[in-house]
Amino acid sequence: MGASGSGKTSMRSLIFSNNPASLTARLGATIDVEQNHVRFLGDLILNLWDCGGQDAFMDSYLTTQRSTIFQHVGVLIYVFDVESAEMHKDLEYFRDCLDGLRAFSPEAGVFLLVHKMDLVRDRGATFERKKKELQEHGDKGLVPGQPATSLTVFGTSIYDESLYRAWSSIVHTLIPNAAVLSKHLSIFAEACSATEVVLFERTTFLVIATSAPPPAAAALEATRYERTSELIKAFKHSCSRVREEFHALEMELPEFSAVLDEMTKNTYVLIIVHDPTIETAALKLNIRMARRKFEELQGLT
Amino acid sequence: MTTTYGATSSTPATRRTMSGTGSTPRIARTKILLLGQRRSGKTSINEVLFNALPPKQTFYLEATMRVVKHAYDSVIPLEIWDCPGNITVDTLGAPLSQFSALIFVIDIRDLYKQPISKLVEFIIAASHSNPQLHVEVFVHKAEKLQEDDKIENFRQIQERVQDHLMERECEQMPYNFHLTSVYDHTLHEAFSKVLHKLIHSLPFLEDLLNVFCANSQSPKAFLFDAASRLYVATDASPVDSATHNLCCDYLSMLNAFGPLYRSTTSSDARLRIPAAEPSPDNRSPAETKDRFYPSAAASLHPSAPGTTLTYHLITPHLALLALVPTGVWEGRRGLLEYNVVFFREGVQEICAVEREARGG
């Protein structure tokens, strides 16, 4: 949810339909609610409700459709345009939506995206200011005694990796066995002498789980997962333009060796190795051997 | 042609970003003049290609107030002169005979007399002092217009330049037009074509690529300058833009991946990359073999009769990108890599000769 023109449909088309950011200008306004079923990790089906943000729609969500809209909500993603001219009105709608959510789906997670961050120059300071404003506002409508809804705020832009970071955290809360996957990825990483193993969802390339973080001494770039999602998605799009389909990648670069390959039918695995003696062919063999175990973990067999 | 140039320019006052030429003043650099009206996109072109500036950021670039010489080492050492908009033949501070190519940038929305008459002035001056100069016109910022207007404006600009030159009775000077934009691959393709005209060893590089393709069942192979993503040479089969764009994107992905997973503790053992400037005496094949050369492969189809896109670093600056049938890549990788080694030795030898000729 979010105000009209804040970028809800743009980000949906970027994450779930493999469209590049440059084409989002062609998207029209969303009328009423567009429902999407996205199969995510096989048996986990995300039901995305992209709610048109024009005032008439918003008013009807909050009155006549209130029970339909806010029932059985897993997560509410509320999008704010960072340069909104009507922040006051946006915040009012947001508070009303939050009230609706508390009444019908009190368990739902709430994520706030301060979107179009590419338009502001001083990203850090602007984001902190907005974050504070939003969190203060979220607590305002609270009836005394009611527990505060925990709000997670992200600054995002469709032009860089920040969008993938936000969405990866959102879907992470929805995956039931994330901890188990992480544990097995750590074992797999050890078997490969790998520094790190990352599991991605196949169509969105959002991060599902990672192996245990490498020791602090060998710390890697903090935004690497989101950047990887972004790079692979961009390359997938380049491939589709020549009617090819990206399938697998292996690299032996001065900095590291890596293999990115299909793990199960709906996941991809990225293995990062820094040991110069490990060959990529060995990593590929390991992926083949591990495939069945991970299918089992996902309940695919 | 290049060897007749003075080794360095005589105008040290205008030097600002002379990173490369400062340390190796003896190398004769091939000079490219970048001209055009104010705000036509000259500095943007230079920054996007040679400093890896994201196209969106070019909006924030400041106006160039004086000539900035940008040194860039690729297959040949280049020196790009980024000029302010108001420069004329007389205020340039160097004779046109010093340059190998002139790139004139025209904003596609700027159909009026000014840029065209300025271009014509330079063409006429060049026809007197340096008739071998390659004049290339980049009709730039193509992304600002719709498809139909784009073609129409492009045609009109060409026509007007032609008319003006006819009026001035200067028709013997050859020049080319390119439609470019920093937001897609057209700029890379156009600049690559300019670069090809400046590389004297191009036929030899192309021969090597032809031999590589024939022996590796590769339908297409490019020798790219890795950092700028300009292709230096390709095999004899026609270049189709889609394949070129894919290779360009692949290279930009690989360039971006490197720093992402760099580890401060363990990379020392891996770094066996060749020294940036190998001296002529370690040119022999035996010594190049034990060095580490980065490589990568992306398979583009899940099943066997698909294509694999391979990447092999050839020299510190150049990378070989080839489309190879997946069956060949998986079944006869050893042979393919042998071909790469053979190709690498050839290219390194050509580069060494080039360096020697330029006094490096």
For this entry, give a set of tags.
heterodimer; A: 301 residues; alpha+beta; Beta-Lactamase; five-stranded antiparallel β-sheet; 9 helices; elongated; B: alpha/beta; 2 domains; six-stranded mixed β-sheet; globular; disordered N terminus
Count up the domains of chain A.
2
What is the average per-residue confidence, as pLDDT of chain A, rounded to a whole number? 85
The whole-angstrom Rg of chain B is 21 Å
Topology as H/E string of chain B? Answer: HEHEEEHEHEHHEEHHHEEEHH
Identify low-pLDDT runs of chain B: 1-24, 273-290
Average pLDDT of chain B works out at 84
Number of strands of chain B: 11
CATH architecture of the largest domain in chain A: 3-Layer(aba) Sandwich
The CATH level-2 architecture of the largest domain in chain B is identified as: 3-Layer(aba) Sandwich
How many domains comprise the coordinates of chain B? 2
Strand content of chain B: 15-25%
Indicate the structural class of chain B.
Answer: alpha/beta
InterPro entries (chain B): Gtr1_RagA, P-loop_NTPase
GO molecular function (chain B): GTP binding; GTPase activity
Family (chain B): Belongs to the GTR/RAG GTP-binding protein family.
Region (Disordered) (chain B): 1-23
